[in-house]
Amino acid sequence: MTRAALYMRVIMKNNHNQDSGRQASIVIPVYNGADTIPELTERLNRVCPRYFSEYEIIFVNDGSRDGSWNVISELSQTQANVVGIRLRRNYGQHNATLCGIRAARYPITITMDDDLQHPPEQLPLLLEEFLKGYDVVYAIPKKLPHSWWRNLGSITIKRFLSKIMNIPIQDIGAFRIFRTDLRDAFANYNSPDVYIDPLLSWGTNAFSHIEVEEEPRKIGESNYTMKSLIKATLSIMTGYSTIPLRFASMLGFFFLFFGIVILIYVFYIATVVGSIPGWPFLASIVSIFSGVQLFSLGIIGEYLARMYVRTMDRPVYLISENTAPLQNKGNYYES
Q1: What secondary structure letter does DSSP report for 22?
Q2: Is there a single domain that holds both residue 151 and residue 96?
Protein backbone atom coordinates (compact mmCIF):
# COMPACT_ATOMS: atom_id res chain seq x y z
CA MET A 1 0.00 0.00 0.00
CA THR A 2 1.38 3.41 -0.96
CA ARG A 3 1.88 6.18 1.57
CA ALA A 4 -0.87 8.27 -0.02
CA ALA A 5 -3.37 5.38 0.13
CA LEU A 6 -2.46 4.74 3.77
CA TYR A 7 -3.07 8.38 4.67
CA MET A 8 -6.37 8.31 2.81
CA ARG A 9 -7.59 5.41 4.95
CA VAL A 10 -6.36 6.90 8.22
CA ILE A 11 -7.86 10.32 7.59
CA MET A 12 -11.16 8.83 6.45
CA LYS A 13 -11.35 6.73 9.60
CA ASN A 14 -10.41 9.48 12.07
CA ASN A 15 -12.14 12.48 10.50
CA HIS A 16 -15.22 11.04 8.88
CA ASN A 17 -17.63 12.95 11.09
CA GLN A 18 -15.69 16.21 10.83
CA ASP A 19 -15.49 16.15 7.01
CA SER A 20 -19.20 16.64 6.43
CA GLY A 21 -18.93 20.42 6.07
CA ARG A 22 -15.58 20.72 4.35
CA GLN A 23 -15.72 22.46 0.97
CA ALA A 24 -12.98 23.13 -1.56
CA SER A 25 -12.41 24.87 -4.88
CA ILE A 26 -9.78 23.29 -7.12
CA VAL A 27 -8.27 25.84 -9.52
CA ILE A 28 -6.47 24.50 -12.59
CA PRO A 29 -5.01 26.85 -15.23
CA VAL A 30 -5.11 25.15 -18.61
CA TYR A 31 -2.82 25.64 -21.58
CA ASN A 32 -3.03 23.02 -24.33
CA GLY A 33 -4.30 20.40 -21.90
CA ALA A 34 -7.02 18.77 -23.99
CA ASP A 35 -5.41 15.33 -23.68
CA THR A 36 -4.95 15.41 -19.89
CA ILE A 37 -8.04 17.24 -18.58
CA PRO A 38 -10.46 14.25 -18.79
CA GLU A 39 -8.17 11.94 -16.82
CA LEU A 40 -7.39 14.67 -14.29
CA THR A 41 -11.09 15.30 -13.73
CA GLU A 42 -11.81 11.60 -13.33
CA ARG A 43 -9.05 11.17 -10.75
CA LEU A 44 -10.17 14.25 -8.82
CA ASN A 45 -13.72 12.92 -8.74
CA ARG A 46 -12.44 9.67 -7.25
CA VAL A 47 -10.43 11.35 -4.49
CA CYS A 48 -12.31 14.51 -3.50
CA PRO A 49 -15.67 13.04 -2.39
CA ARG A 50 -13.85 11.21 0.40
CA TYR A 51 -12.64 14.46 1.98
CA PHE A 52 -15.03 17.18 0.91
CA SER A 53 -18.79 17.36 1.23
CA GLU A 54 -18.78 19.81 -1.68
CA TYR A 55 -16.09 20.73 -4.18
CA GLU A 56 -15.76 22.39 -7.55
CA ILE A 57 -13.15 22.05 -10.28
CA ILE A 58 -12.42 25.38 -11.95
CA PHE A 59 -10.63 25.09 -15.28
CA VAL A 60 -9.28 28.41 -16.55
CA ASN A 61 -8.44 28.13 -20.24
CA ASP A 62 -5.46 30.43 -20.78
CA GLY A 63 -5.54 30.90 -24.54
CA SER A 64 -4.97 27.24 -25.44
CA ARG A 65 -4.29 26.51 -29.09
CA ASP A 66 -5.75 23.01 -29.01
CA GLY A 67 -9.25 21.79 -28.17
CA SER A 68 -8.98 22.41 -24.43
CA TRP A 69 -12.01 24.68 -24.27
CA ASN A 70 -14.21 22.18 -26.10
CA VAL A 71 -13.18 19.49 -23.61
CA ILE A 72 -13.86 21.81 -20.65
CA SER A 73 -17.27 22.77 -22.07
CA GLU A 74 -18.26 19.12 -22.50
CA LEU A 75 -17.19 18.27 -18.97
CA SER A 76 -19.14 21.19 -17.51
CA GLN A 77 -22.28 20.08 -19.33
CA THR A 78 -22.12 16.58 -17.87
CA GLN A 79 -20.71 17.36 -14.41
CA ALA A 80 -22.26 19.99 -12.17
CA ASN A 81 -19.08 20.52 -10.16
CA VAL A 82 -16.96 21.51 -13.20
CA VAL A 83 -16.69 25.21 -14.00
CA GLY A 84 -14.97 26.50 -17.12
CA ILE A 85 -13.60 30.01 -17.61
CA ARG A 86 -12.17 31.05 -20.95
CA LEU A 87 -9.73 33.94 -21.12
CA ARG A 88 -9.55 36.08 -24.25
CA ARG A 89 -5.88 35.29 -24.85
CA ASN A 90 -2.87 33.78 -23.15
CA TYR A 91 -2.10 35.86 -20.06
CA GLY A 92 0.20 33.45 -18.23
CA GLN A 93 -0.19 30.69 -15.67
CA HIS A 94 -0.28 32.95 -12.62
CA ASN A 95 -2.80 35.34 -14.19
CA ALA A 96 -5.08 32.43 -15.02
CA THR A 97 -4.64 31.02 -11.52
CA LEU A 98 -5.58 34.38 -10.00
CA CYS A 99 -8.73 34.39 -12.14
CA GLY A 100 -9.69 30.99 -10.76
CA ILE A 101 -8.89 32.01 -7.18
CA ARG A 102 -11.20 35.01 -7.47
CA ALA A 103 -13.95 32.76 -8.85
CA ALA A 104 -13.60 30.20 -6.04
CA ARG A 105 -16.79 29.68 -4.01
CA TYR A 106 -15.54 27.59 -1.11
CA PRO A 107 -13.37 28.27 1.98
CA ILE A 108 -10.47 26.05 0.83
CA THR A 109 -8.65 26.59 -2.44
CA ILE A 110 -6.35 24.06 -4.08
CA THR A 111 -4.23 24.93 -7.12
CA MET A 112 -2.51 22.44 -9.39
CA ASP A 113 -1.27 22.02 -12.97
CA ASP A 114 -3.22 20.41 -15.79
CA ASP A 115 -0.44 18.09 -16.99
CA LEU A 116 -0.99 15.27 -14.42
CA GLN A 117 2.39 15.89 -12.78
CA HIS A 118 0.49 16.84 -9.62
CA PRO A 119 -1.30 13.60 -8.69
CA PRO A 120 -4.75 14.13 -7.15
CA GLU A 121 -4.02 11.08 -4.98
CA GLN A 122 -1.53 13.22 -3.04
CA LEU A 123 -4.24 15.65 -1.91
CA PRO A 124 -4.81 13.80 1.40
CA LEU A 125 -1.22 14.59 2.39
CA LEU A 126 -1.70 18.26 1.63
CA LEU A 127 -5.00 18.35 3.48
CA GLU A 128 -3.59 16.63 6.55
CA GLU A 129 -0.82 19.23 6.87
CA PHE A 130 -3.27 22.06 6.18
CA LEU A 131 -5.57 20.89 8.98
CA LYS A 132 -2.75 21.37 11.47
CA GLY A 133 -3.55 25.09 11.31
CA TYR A 134 -1.41 26.40 8.48
CA ASP A 135 -2.82 28.95 6.05
CA VAL A 136 -0.78 27.78 3.04
CA VAL A 137 0.75 24.37 2.37
CA TYR A 138 2.92 23.58 -0.66
CA ALA A 139 3.45 20.13 -2.15
CA ILE A 140 7.12 19.74 -3.04
CA PRO A 141 8.26 16.89 -5.30
CA LYS A 142 10.63 14.41 -3.69
CA LYS A 143 12.44 14.04 -6.99
CA LEU A 144 12.46 16.65 -9.72
CA PRO A 145 11.86 15.28 -13.23
CA HIS A 146 14.30 17.43 -15.21
CA SER A 147 18.04 17.30 -15.85
CA TRP A 148 20.38 17.84 -12.89
CA TRP A 149 21.51 21.31 -13.97
CA ARG A 150 17.95 22.53 -14.47
CA ASN A 151 16.83 20.98 -11.18
CA LEU A 152 19.73 22.66 -9.38
CA GLY A 153 18.94 26.00 -10.97
CA SER A 154 15.23 25.63 -10.21
CA ILE A 155 15.83 24.74 -6.56
CA THR A 156 18.31 27.60 -6.11
CA ILE A 157 15.99 30.16 -7.69
CA LYS A 158 12.88 29.02 -5.81
CA ARG A 159 14.67 29.03 -2.45
CA PHE A 160 16.06 32.47 -3.22
CA LEU A 161 12.57 33.69 -4.08
CA SER A 162 11.12 32.23 -0.89
CA LYS A 163 13.59 34.35 1.08
CA ILE A 164 12.69 37.48 -0.88
CA MET A 165 8.97 36.89 -0.37
CA ASN A 166 9.48 36.15 3.33
CA ILE A 167 7.99 32.67 2.96
CA PRO A 168 9.55 30.56 5.75
CA ILE A 169 9.92 27.35 3.76
CA GLN A 170 12.65 26.07 1.48
CA ASP A 171 10.66 25.63 -1.69
CA ILE A 172 7.51 26.79 -3.44
CA GLY A 173 5.45 25.48 -6.33
CA ALA A 174 2.11 25.47 -8.16
CA PHE A 175 0.65 22.53 -6.17
CA ARG A 176 -0.71 24.18 -3.02
CA ILE A 177 -3.66 24.41 -0.65
CA PHE A 178 -4.66 27.57 1.20
CA ARG A 179 -7.50 29.43 2.85
CA THR A 180 -9.61 31.18 0.25
CA ASP A 181 -10.00 34.29 2.39
CA LEU A 182 -6.31 35.06 1.86
CA ARG A 183 -7.39 36.55 -1.46
CA ASP A 184 -8.71 39.53 0.50
CA ALA A 185 -5.08 40.62 0.92
CA PHE A 186 -4.75 41.14 -2.84
CA ALA A 187 -8.37 41.84 -3.76
CA ASN A 188 -7.42 45.20 -5.30
CA TYR A 189 -4.30 43.95 -7.07
CA ASN A 190 -4.51 44.98 -10.72
CA SER A 191 -1.19 44.58 -12.49
CA PRO A 192 -0.47 42.32 -15.48
CA ASP A 193 2.67 41.00 -13.74
CA VAL A 194 1.11 38.40 -11.46
CA TYR A 195 2.85 35.88 -9.19
CA ILE A 196 0.61 34.05 -6.74
CA ASP A 197 3.21 33.20 -4.09
CA PRO A 198 4.18 36.77 -3.09
CA LEU A 199 0.49 37.70 -3.13
CA LEU A 200 -0.25 34.93 -0.63
CA SER A 201 2.60 36.15 1.56
CA TRP A 202 0.78 39.50 1.88
CA GLY A 203 -1.93 37.79 3.90
CA THR A 204 -0.08 35.33 6.13
CA ASN A 205 3.23 33.92 7.27
CA ALA A 206 1.76 30.56 8.34
CA PHE A 207 3.34 28.48 5.57
CA SER A 208 4.28 24.83 5.48
CA HIS A 209 5.20 22.19 2.92
CA ILE A 210 5.24 18.45 2.45
CA GLU A 211 7.04 16.15 0.04
CA VAL A 212 4.98 14.23 -2.51
CA GLU A 213 5.61 11.91 -5.41
CA GLU A 214 5.38 13.97 -8.58
CA GLU A 215 4.63 12.04 -11.74
CA PRO A 216 6.64 12.55 -14.95
CA ARG A 217 4.91 14.48 -17.70
CA LYS A 218 3.15 11.99 -19.98
CA ILE A 219 1.99 14.29 -22.77
CA GLY A 220 3.66 17.34 -24.29
CA GLU A 221 6.60 19.32 -23.00
CA SER A 222 6.96 21.81 -20.18
CA ASN A 223 6.64 25.48 -21.14
CA TYR A 224 9.05 26.47 -18.37
CA THR A 225 12.74 26.83 -19.15
CA MET A 226 15.66 28.18 -17.18
CA LYS A 227 15.22 31.43 -19.08
CA SER A 228 11.61 31.76 -17.92
CA LEU A 229 12.62 30.98 -14.33
CA ILE A 230 15.28 33.70 -14.40
CA LYS A 231 12.77 36.13 -15.93
CA ALA A 232 10.28 35.29 -13.17
CA THR A 233 12.99 35.85 -10.55
CA LEU A 234 13.81 39.31 -11.87
CA SER A 235 10.10 40.19 -12.09
CA ILE A 236 9.42 39.11 -8.50
CA MET A 237 12.54 40.85 -7.21
CA THR A 238 11.59 44.19 -8.74
CA GLY A 239 7.80 43.80 -8.61
CA TYR A 240 7.29 42.55 -5.05
CA SER A 241 10.43 43.52 -3.16
CA THR A 242 12.67 46.52 -2.49
CA ILE A 243 15.78 44.36 -1.96
CA PRO A 244 17.37 45.35 -5.32
CA LEU A 245 16.99 49.05 -4.44
CA ARG A 246 18.57 48.47 -1.05
CA PHE A 247 21.36 46.53 -2.74
CA ALA A 248 21.96 49.44 -5.13
CA SER A 249 22.13 51.82 -2.13
CA MET A 250 24.59 49.59 -0.29
CA LEU A 251 26.65 49.29 -3.45
CA GLY A 252 26.70 53.08 -3.75
CA PHE A 253 27.87 53.49 -0.15
CA PHE A 254 30.55 50.85 -0.63
CA PHE A 255 32.00 52.54 -3.69
CA LEU A 256 31.75 55.94 -2.04
CA PHE A 257 34.00 54.54 0.66
CA PHE A 258 36.17 52.92 -2.00
CA GLY A 259 36.47 56.30 -3.80
CA ILE A 260 37.57 58.00 -0.57
CA VAL A 261 40.24 55.34 -0.10
CA ILE A 262 41.45 55.90 -3.69
CA LEU A 263 41.51 59.68 -3.10
CA ILE A 264 43.64 59.23 0.01
CA TYR A 265 45.92 56.88 -1.91
CA VAL A 266 46.35 59.34 -4.80
CA PHE A 267 46.95 62.24 -2.38
CA TYR A 268 49.55 60.17 -0.52
CA ILE A 269 51.37 59.19 -3.74
CA ALA A 270 51.33 62.77 -5.02
CA THR A 271 52.68 64.09 -1.71
CA VAL A 272 55.29 61.46 -0.82
CA VAL A 273 56.44 60.06 -4.16
CA GLY A 274 55.81 63.13 -6.25
CA SER A 275 53.86 61.47 -9.06
CA ILE A 276 50.49 59.82 -9.43
CA PRO A 277 49.56 56.66 -11.37
CA GLY A 278 48.98 57.18 -15.06
CA TRP A 279 46.32 56.38 -17.62
CA PRO A 280 45.68 52.65 -16.84
CA PHE A 281 44.89 53.47 -13.22
CA LEU A 282 42.59 56.35 -14.15
CA ALA A 283 40.81 54.33 -16.85
CA SER A 284 40.23 51.44 -14.42
CA ILE A 285 38.73 53.69 -11.75
CA VAL A 286 36.46 55.45 -14.25
CA SER A 287 35.28 52.08 -15.65
CA ILE A 288 34.51 50.69 -12.21
CA PHE A 289 32.50 53.70 -11.09
CA SER A 290 30.72 54.04 -14.43
CA GLY A 291 29.73 50.38 -14.30
CA VAL A 292 28.34 50.74 -10.78
CA GLN A 293 26.38 53.83 -11.76
CA LEU A 294 24.87 52.18 -14.82
CA PHE A 295 24.00 49.06 -12.80
CA SER A 296 22.25 51.13 -10.14
CA LEU A 297 20.42 53.17 -12.78
CA GLY A 298 19.32 49.91 -14.40
CA ILE A 299 17.74 48.74 -11.15
CA ILE A 300 15.98 52.07 -10.70
CA GLY A 301 14.84 51.94 -14.33
CA GLU A 302 13.36 48.48 -13.75
CA TYR A 303 11.24 49.83 -10.91
CA LEU A 304 10.19 52.85 -12.96
CA ALA A 305 9.17 50.56 -15.82
CA ARG A 306 6.97 48.50 -13.50
CA MET A 307 5.40 51.65 -12.07
CA TYR A 308 4.72 52.82 -15.63
CA VAL A 309 3.09 49.50 -16.55
CA ARG A 310 0.83 49.69 -13.50
CA THR A 311 -0.25 53.26 -14.32
CA MET A 312 -1.43 52.04 -17.74
CA ASP A 313 -4.19 50.03 -16.00
CA ARG A 314 -3.69 47.03 -18.23
CA PRO A 315 -6.05 44.24 -17.11
CA VAL A 316 -4.73 41.21 -15.27
CA TYR A 317 -6.93 39.10 -17.52
CA LEU A 318 -10.14 39.36 -19.54
CA ILE A 319 -12.79 36.65 -19.44
CA SER A 320 -14.25 35.72 -22.80
CA GLU A 321 -16.93 33.34 -21.55
CA ASN A 322 -17.95 30.91 -18.83
CA THR A 323 -19.43 27.47 -19.29
CA ALA A 324 -22.35 28.71 -17.21
CA PRO A 325 -23.09 31.90 -15.29
CA LEU A 326 -21.10 31.54 -12.07
CA GLN A 327 -24.00 32.78 -9.97
CA ASN A 328 -25.99 29.77 -11.12
CA LYS A 329 -23.37 27.50 -9.62
CA GLY A 330 -24.02 28.85 -6.13
CA ASN A 331 -23.01 31.82 -4.04
CA TYR A 332 -19.42 32.92 -3.75
CA TYR A 333 -17.64 32.16 -0.53
CA GLU A 334 -17.37 35.28 1.59
CA SER A 335 -14.73 35.51 4.28
Answers
A1: -
A2: yes
